[in-house]
Amino acid sequence: MKLLFPIFLLLSGLVFGQKAVPSDFKKIPEILDNTELLYPFIVPDKKYDYWSVLRNNPDPDKAIIYESQAPDFMTINDPVPEKGFFQKCLGEDCFSYLIACENSRSAYFSNEKQLRDFIGFVDNLPEAILIANTYGYTVDTPNPLGSSYKIEDRHISLYLSKANNCPPTKESFLIKINRKTGKIEAKSNGVYFKSEECITK
Hints:
Distance between the termini: 37 Å
Order of helices and strands: HEEHEEEHHEEEE
Mean pLDDT: 87
Structural class: alpha+beta
Helix content: 10-25%
Number of strands: 9
Largest sheet: 5 strands, antiparallel
Radius of gyration: 20 Å
Number of helices: 4
Shape: globular
């Protein structure tokens, strides 16, 4: 029995041992762990008369997540697409999509790649997090291994998290985003949280 405890500690160290976040990285503000609060920070590559991010909800007031400044006379009444980005389920309130108006013509952006194309050059931290979200990486604010960043001229680097439900685990990733192209490089930094209980929905 005395031998089991040191062995358990050793194995825990192997599972949860991971690199520390470098000192030149800063903490991601907690407010940026909510995807819907990232849209107002988007600076599109192209000049649009108007653009809006919506969820697939039949109630127009509940559908709007974010609207850019728009002239009073301009409205967009296009139908809801069948699919969108950040698909969570089937039915209402299950995905988001973006509509932009250019020269009195509207265009849909209804998948993750199209959202990245709409963002274009990565101007700021919220855009970088949004791009990472399209690849399944999320901000885990309690832990620096899931919520740290560094901004440079050509790249934005992020420590973000990927979670699994069964058993519940959180794995840290170092994400490097090319600001010009939006392309990412991802490297695992190890599992930093693991539970024995298996969560099933």
